Amino acid sequence: MTSPREQASRRVLEAACATAALDSNGATPIRLAENDLWRLPHGVVGRIARPGQHQAAAREVAVTRWLTTHQVPAVRPLPIRQPVHAKGRAVTFWEELPPHRRGTPDEMAPLLKCLHALPIPDIDLGQLDPFVRIEQRLTEATSVRADDKDWLLHHFADLQFAWAELPDGLPRCVIHADAWTGNVAVTPTTAYLMDFERTSLGPPEWDLTSTAISTDTFGTLAPHAYQDFCEAYGHDVTLWQGYPVLRAIRELRLVTFALQTAEGDSTAADQAQYRIDCVRGRNGPRPWHWAAVG
Question: Which of 110, 178, 210, 282 is the most exposed place for a label (fewest CB within 10 A)?
Protein backbone atom coordinates (compact mmCIF):
# COMPACT_ATOMS: atom_id res chain seq x y z
CA MET A 1 0.00 0.00 0.00
CA THR A 2 1.44 3.35 -1.03
CA SER A 3 1.73 6.23 1.43
CA PRO A 4 -0.21 9.50 1.04
CA ARG A 5 3.13 11.18 0.35
CA GLU A 6 3.84 8.85 -2.56
CA GLN A 7 0.30 9.18 -3.91
CA ALA A 8 0.53 12.99 -3.89
CA SER A 9 3.94 12.90 -5.56
CA ARG A 10 2.67 10.54 -8.25
CA ARG A 11 -0.22 12.88 -9.04
CA VAL A 12 2.24 15.72 -9.60
CA LEU A 13 4.41 13.49 -11.79
CA GLU A 14 1.47 12.32 -13.90
CA ALA A 15 0.26 15.89 -14.45
CA ALA A 16 3.76 17.00 -15.49
CA CYS A 17 4.18 14.03 -17.83
CA ALA A 18 0.85 14.79 -19.47
CA THR A 19 2.00 18.37 -20.13
CA ALA A 20 5.37 17.23 -21.48
CA ALA A 21 3.87 14.39 -23.57
CA LEU A 22 5.90 11.79 -21.66
CA ASP A 23 4.82 8.31 -20.61
CA SER A 24 4.27 7.93 -16.84
CA ASN A 25 2.84 4.39 -16.96
CA GLY A 26 4.69 2.14 -14.55
CA ALA A 27 6.68 4.99 -12.98
CA THR A 28 8.45 3.89 -9.79
CA PRO A 29 9.86 6.10 -7.02
CA ILE A 30 13.64 6.21 -6.68
CA ARG A 31 13.70 8.49 -3.66
CA LEU A 32 11.08 10.66 -2.00
CA ALA A 33 12.93 13.30 0.00
CA GLU A 34 13.54 17.04 -0.34
CA ASN A 35 13.22 16.42 -4.07
CA ASP A 36 11.22 13.44 -5.33
CA LEU A 37 12.89 11.25 -7.95
CA TRP A 38 10.94 8.90 -10.20
CA ARG A 39 12.06 6.37 -12.79
CA LEU A 40 9.95 6.58 -15.95
CA PRO A 41 9.87 4.33 -19.01
CA HIS A 42 12.39 4.77 -21.83
CA GLY A 43 15.37 5.77 -19.67
CA VAL A 44 13.90 8.95 -18.18
CA VAL A 45 14.08 10.25 -14.61
CA GLY A 46 11.57 12.79 -13.32
CA ARG A 47 12.56 15.16 -10.53
CA ILE A 48 9.91 17.02 -8.52
CA ALA A 49 11.34 20.05 -6.74
CA ARG A 50 10.27 21.31 -3.35
CA PRO A 51 7.45 23.88 -3.37
CA GLY A 52 8.67 27.34 -4.28
CA GLN A 53 11.73 26.10 -6.19
CA HIS A 54 10.68 26.96 -9.75
CA GLN A 55 13.60 29.34 -10.28
CA ALA A 56 16.13 26.88 -8.89
CA ALA A 57 14.80 24.12 -11.15
CA ALA A 58 15.05 26.36 -14.21
CA ARG A 59 18.60 27.34 -13.25
CA GLU A 60 19.58 23.69 -12.82
CA VAL A 61 18.40 22.86 -16.34
CA ALA A 62 20.23 25.88 -17.76
CA VAL A 63 23.44 25.00 -15.91
CA THR A 64 23.51 21.38 -17.06
CA ARG A 65 22.89 22.40 -20.68
CA TRP A 66 25.77 24.88 -20.38
CA LEU A 67 28.02 22.18 -18.91
CA THR A 68 27.23 19.96 -21.89
CA THR A 69 28.62 22.62 -24.24
CA HIS A 70 31.87 22.53 -22.25
CA GLN A 71 32.07 18.72 -22.22
CA VAL A 72 31.82 18.50 -18.43
CA PRO A 73 30.43 15.08 -17.47
CA ALA A 74 27.11 15.84 -15.81
CA VAL A 75 23.55 14.56 -15.83
CA ARG A 76 21.65 15.75 -18.90
CA PRO A 77 18.13 17.17 -19.08
CA LEU A 78 15.81 15.99 -21.83
CA PRO A 79 15.75 18.34 -24.85
CA ILE A 80 12.26 19.63 -24.06
CA ARG A 81 10.96 22.89 -22.69
CA GLN A 82 11.32 22.66 -18.91
CA PRO A 83 10.83 22.86 -16.02
CA VAL A 84 7.23 21.78 -16.31
CA HIS A 85 4.83 23.28 -13.77
CA ALA A 86 2.30 20.89 -12.24
CA LYS A 87 0.12 21.34 -9.16
CA GLY A 88 2.33 24.12 -7.84
CA ARG A 89 5.59 22.19 -8.26
CA ALA A 90 8.45 22.41 -10.75
CA VAL A 91 9.22 19.11 -12.47
CA THR A 92 12.28 18.40 -14.59
CA PHE A 93 13.12 15.38 -16.75
CA TRP A 94 16.55 13.84 -17.21
CA GLU A 95 18.37 11.12 -19.12
CA GLU A 96 18.82 8.16 -16.77
CA LEU A 97 22.43 7.28 -16.12
CA PRO A 98 23.73 3.75 -16.73
CA PRO A 99 24.19 1.56 -13.63
CA HIS A 100 26.50 3.47 -11.31
CA ARG A 101 27.91 3.79 -7.83
CA ARG A 102 28.56 6.74 -5.58
CA GLY A 103 31.82 8.54 -6.26
CA THR A 104 34.86 8.94 -4.04
CA PRO A 105 36.52 12.25 -3.09
CA ASP A 106 39.43 11.72 -5.49
CA GLU A 107 36.93 10.99 -8.30
CA MET A 108 35.01 14.16 -7.46
CA ALA A 109 38.08 16.40 -7.34
CA PRO A 110 38.81 16.51 -11.12
CA LEU A 111 35.15 17.31 -11.81
CA LEU A 112 35.25 20.23 -9.40
CA LYS A 113 38.55 21.43 -10.83
CA CYS A 114 37.04 21.37 -14.32
CA LEU A 115 33.90 23.20 -13.16
CA HIS A 116 35.87 25.88 -11.30
CA ALA A 117 38.03 26.57 -14.37
CA LEU A 118 35.08 27.38 -16.67
CA PRO A 119 34.29 30.92 -17.81
CA ILE A 120 31.35 32.67 -16.15
CA PRO A 121 28.23 31.79 -18.19
CA ASP A 122 25.48 34.08 -19.36
CA ILE A 123 23.12 32.59 -16.78
CA ASP A 124 21.71 34.37 -13.75
CA LEU A 125 23.38 32.15 -11.16
CA GLY A 126 23.35 34.62 -8.31
CA GLN A 127 25.94 34.80 -5.53
CA LEU A 128 26.36 31.95 -3.06
CA ASP A 129 24.41 32.47 0.16
CA PRO A 130 25.94 30.04 2.65
CA PHE A 131 23.40 31.03 5.31
CA VAL A 132 20.20 30.20 3.44
CA ARG A 133 17.53 28.79 5.81
CA ILE A 134 19.85 28.86 8.86
CA GLU A 135 18.09 31.70 10.68
CA GLN A 136 14.65 30.29 9.85
CA ARG A 137 15.61 26.87 11.19
CA LEU A 138 16.93 28.41 14.40
CA THR A 139 13.97 30.66 15.08
CA GLU A 140 11.45 27.88 14.35
CA ALA A 141 13.22 25.20 16.40
CA THR A 142 11.22 24.14 19.46
CA SER A 143 13.39 21.27 20.69
CA VAL A 144 16.39 23.46 21.55
CA ARG A 145 17.03 25.00 24.97
CA ALA A 146 16.68 28.79 25.19
CA ASP A 147 20.31 29.38 26.15
CA ASP A 148 21.52 27.20 23.26
CA LYS A 149 19.25 29.01 20.81
CA ASP A 150 20.55 32.40 21.97
CA TRP A 151 24.15 31.22 21.62
CA LEU A 152 23.52 29.80 18.13
CA LEU A 153 21.87 33.02 16.97
CA HIS A 154 24.86 35.05 18.19
CA HIS A 155 27.22 32.53 16.55
CA PHE A 156 25.22 32.91 13.33
CA ALA A 157 25.63 36.71 13.47
CA ASP A 158 29.38 36.40 14.12
CA LEU A 159 29.77 34.08 11.13
CA GLN A 160 27.88 36.46 8.86
CA PHE A 161 30.40 39.16 9.75
CA ALA A 162 33.33 36.77 9.30
CA TRP A 163 31.99 35.67 5.88
CA ALA A 164 31.89 39.30 4.73
CA GLU A 165 35.51 39.75 5.84
CA LEU A 166 37.02 36.57 4.37
CA PRO A 167 40.66 36.91 3.29
CA ASP A 168 41.59 36.58 -0.37
CA GLY A 169 41.68 33.06 -1.70
CA LEU A 170 41.22 31.33 -5.03
CA PRO A 171 39.47 33.34 -7.78
CA ARG A 172 35.67 33.33 -7.47
CA CYS A 173 33.98 31.20 -10.08
CA VAL A 174 31.03 28.94 -10.80
CA ILE A 175 30.73 26.55 -7.87
CA HIS A 176 28.57 23.48 -7.37
CA ALA A 177 27.68 24.58 -3.81
CA ASP A 178 26.57 21.08 -2.72
CA ALA A 179 29.76 19.21 -3.58
CA TRP A 180 29.80 15.88 -1.79
CA THR A 181 30.33 12.36 -3.06
CA GLY A 182 26.60 11.62 -3.02
CA ASN A 183 26.34 14.04 -5.94
CA VAL A 184 28.88 12.11 -8.01
CA ALA A 185 27.81 9.03 -9.97
CA VAL A 186 30.47 6.72 -11.38
CA THR A 187 29.72 4.34 -14.24
CA PRO A 188 32.25 1.82 -15.61
CA THR A 189 33.53 4.53 -17.95
CA THR A 190 32.75 8.00 -16.54
CA ALA A 191 32.24 10.00 -13.35
CA TYR A 192 29.31 12.45 -13.50
CA LEU A 193 28.34 15.45 -11.40
CA MET A 194 24.69 15.67 -10.33
CA ASP A 195 22.28 17.99 -8.51
CA PHE A 196 23.01 21.57 -9.55
CA GLU A 197 20.12 23.07 -7.60
CA ARG A 198 22.43 25.33 -5.57
CA THR A 199 25.00 26.14 -8.27
CA SER A 200 26.04 29.78 -8.00
CA LEU A 201 29.00 32.15 -8.13
CA GLY A 202 31.28 32.09 -5.13
CA PRO A 203 34.58 31.00 -3.62
CA PRO A 204 35.67 27.55 -4.84
CA GLU A 205 36.87 26.91 -1.29
CA TRP A 206 33.20 26.38 -0.36
CA ASP A 207 33.09 23.27 -2.56
CA LEU A 208 36.40 22.01 -1.17
CA THR A 209 35.43 22.53 2.47
CA SER A 210 32.67 19.92 2.29
CA THR A 211 35.31 17.23 1.79
CA ALA A 212 37.78 18.74 4.25
CA ILE A 213 35.28 18.54 7.11
CA SER A 214 34.76 14.84 6.41
CA THR A 215 38.20 14.42 7.91
CA ASP A 216 38.37 17.47 10.16
CA THR A 217 34.90 17.57 11.75
CA PHE A 218 33.46 14.09 11.23
CA GLY A 219 36.49 11.80 11.12
CA THR A 220 34.80 9.72 8.41
CA LEU A 221 37.43 10.30 5.73
CA ALA A 222 40.93 9.00 6.44
CA PRO A 223 43.71 11.61 6.25
CA HIS A 224 45.42 9.77 3.38
CA ALA A 225 42.16 9.79 1.40
CA TYR A 226 41.83 13.53 2.02
CA GLN A 227 45.37 14.01 0.72
CA ASP A 228 44.43 12.06 -2.41
CA PHE A 229 41.54 14.51 -2.88
CA CYS A 230 43.87 17.50 -2.46
CA GLU A 231 46.38 16.09 -4.93
CA ALA A 232 43.66 15.36 -7.48
CA TYR A 233 42.33 18.93 -7.20
CA GLY A 234 45.69 20.63 -6.71
CA HIS A 235 44.86 22.58 -3.55
CA ASP A 236 44.39 22.01 0.19
CA VAL A 237 41.70 24.35 1.50
CA THR A 238 42.63 23.68 5.14
CA LEU A 239 45.83 25.71 4.62
CA TRP A 240 43.80 28.84 3.76
CA GLN A 241 43.25 31.39 6.53
CA GLY A 242 39.54 31.56 5.72
CA TYR A 243 38.98 27.82 6.14
CA PRO A 244 37.92 27.92 9.82
CA VAL A 245 35.10 30.31 8.90
CA LEU A 246 33.79 28.10 6.09
CA ARG A 247 34.10 25.04 8.32
CA ALA A 248 32.13 26.76 11.09
CA ILE A 249 29.39 27.82 8.66
CA ARG A 250 29.04 24.29 7.33
CA GLU A 251 28.93 22.92 10.87
CA LEU A 252 26.21 25.42 11.81
CA ARG A 253 24.23 24.40 8.73
CA LEU A 254 24.37 20.79 9.88
CA VAL A 255 23.38 21.73 13.41
CA THR A 256 20.30 23.54 12.15
CA PHE A 257 19.44 20.69 9.77
CA ALA A 258 19.42 18.34 12.77
CA LEU A 259 17.19 20.78 14.65
CA GLN A 260 14.82 20.95 11.69
CA THR A 261 14.72 17.14 11.48
CA ALA A 262 14.10 16.87 15.22
CA GLU A 263 10.85 18.82 14.83
CA GLY A 264 9.27 15.80 13.14
CA ASP A 265 11.57 13.02 14.37
CA SER A 266 12.20 12.72 18.09
CA THR A 267 15.10 10.32 17.47
CA ALA A 268 17.03 13.21 15.89
CA ALA A 269 16.75 15.37 19.03
CA ASP A 270 19.68 13.68 20.80
CA GLN A 271 21.91 14.09 17.76
CA ALA A 272 20.88 17.74 17.42
CA GLN A 273 21.83 18.38 21.05
CA TYR A 274 25.12 16.52 20.60
CA ARG A 275 25.98 18.73 17.62
CA ILE A 276 25.14 21.85 19.62
CA ASP A 277 27.34 20.65 22.48
CA CYS A 278 30.19 20.09 20.01
CA VAL A 279 30.11 23.56 18.44
CA ARG A 280 29.75 25.09 21.90
CA GLY A 281 32.96 23.39 23.03
CA ARG A 282 31.39 20.90 25.43
CA ASN A 283 32.65 17.74 23.70
CA GLY A 284 36.34 18.36 23.24
CA PRO A 285 38.24 18.91 20.00
CA ARG A 286 37.34 17.68 16.53
CA PRO A 287 36.68 15.16 15.01
CA TRP A 288 33.23 14.78 16.56
CA HIS A 289 31.87 11.82 14.57
CA TRP A 290 28.34 13.16 14.06
CA ALA A 291 25.72 10.58 13.11
CA ALA A 292 23.42 11.05 10.11
CA VAL A 293 19.89 12.36 10.66
CA GLY A 294 16.84 12.44 8.39
Answer: 282
pLDDT tens digits for 214-235? 999 999 999 999 999 999 999 9
pTM (predicted TM-score): 0.93
Whether the CB-CB separation of 190 and 161 falls below 8 Å is answered with no
The per-residue DSSP string of 250-280 comes to HHHHHHHHHHHHHTT-THHHHHHHHHHHHHT
Domain span(s) for CATH 3.30.200.20 in the chain: 4-96
- The closest of 112, 123, 117, 40 to 74, measured between CA atoms, is 112
d(CA 291, CA 269): 12
Q: Any residues with CB less than 8 A from the CB of 141 and at least 6 apart, and which?
A: 149, 256, 259, 260, 262, 263
Give the C-alpha separation, 289 to 286, whole Å: 8
For 24-55, the pLDDT digits (tens) are: 999 999 999 889 999 999 999 999 999 999 99
- CATH number at 105-279: 3.90.1200.10
